[in-house]
Amino acid sequence: MKWKVCGMREPNNVLEIAALRPDYMGFILWDGSERYCPTPPEVPAGITKVGVFVDAHLEKIEQAITAFKLGAVQLHGNESPSLCRTLQGKTQVIKAFGVGVDFDFDTLTDYLPCCDFFLFDTKGPLPGGNGTTFDWTLLNEYPFNLPFFISGGIGMAEIAKINDIRNSDLPVYAIDVNSLFETAPALKNAKQLKNFKEKLAL
User: For residue range 27-38, what is the model confidence (pLDDT) as tens digits?
Assistant: First the structure.
């Protein structure tokens, strides 16, 4: 199972966390976030740089892919399947969805041919970064083979749940962590993340 650290910004902190070798590192390119990072710094080779967008225009996303050498885009708004299709081949496409008790997985069908991964986050007042988990048992209803990230309020308390779901038949590709490992918005605690990685043997 892969892991992603999202909501990064400060260059020194990026290097500190990169030393833990996450598979993905996310930078939020939506100015409505307190973790907004208008100019993502470089990341070491072997770590995929992810740009996180919320209902951005196609041109802005394409420009960012080139300017910041994004290995993936994470789309956290109401982006259409056609927009995802246009981006395919230019970078990895991760389409995020907020999951609540009434979530209908059938709504994902049109996205299947044009996304590399889904990401399931907690449905809340913000597109992401709400700091709470959703009921992961809802994922047992997931009917597709497309691999997905799990996000939303993941911290040390979720270790046992992560081990359970990684040993299930679900196509869980990666765990995405953010706010519960912060000392301040966009500033991650390397010691806590190291402990998390070791506990999960990532």
Answer: 999 999 999 999
